[in-house]
Amino acid sequence: MTTKPGANSDGRPSKPPTAYFLFMRERGDEVKGLSGAERTRTLSTKWKELGEEEKQAYNNRAKELKDAYKIELERWKQEHPDEAEGAMKREPVRAAVKELRVSRGASEKDLKIFFILAHLKAYAKEHSGATIPATKRAKALLIERFEALADEERAAWQTAWEALAETQRGEMREFYESWAPNA
């Protein structure tokens, strides 16, 4: 296995692709004319439709590449002990930063759901129980409002979301999916 040019400035071997990304690379030409999002969506659907044997072939190739990567990484560490030590010191910091991002609470999708449902509830309260129809336009307008929030406002929504019990969060997700399954 060779390093990708410019992938790691210290010459360290690059991590190998997963089975899914091997599939994406291999089948990329099939969807060449599509936009990036459409290409990803199409290939993702094809990946989900693959049989277990076909997926296993990609998993086996990914495992072989990962094993080769581990061997090459060990060789690199032995040949570059000073650089390897610096790289190893960075790894716990990267892991801590990643953990912090994950532990921050609600995902962007959850915050959007929470925001939209709060607006649905406020609308019903102001209009004697009337509801906003579940249309793509209504959903798009509410998402647009959410995305226009200032950081302080988002932080307030984040805090309110974190104050909810997990059962309430689950109920909100379920209600949202039933309100706008195709919107």
UniProtKB/TrEMBL annotation:
InterPro entries: DnaJ_domain, HMG_box_dom, HMG_box_dom_sf, UBF1. Residues 45-180 form the J domain. GO terms for cellular component: nucleus. It comes from Giardia muris. GO terms for molecular function: DNA binding. Residues 13-77 bind DNA. PANTHER family: UPSTREAM BINDING TRANSCRIPTION FACTOR. This is HMG (High mobility group) box-containing protein. The keyword Nucleus applies. The keyword Lipid metabolism does not apply. Residues 13-77 form the HMG box domain. Residues 48-79 form a coiled coil. Keywords: Coiled coil, DNA-binding, Nucleus. It is found in: Nucleus. Pfam families: HMG_box_2.
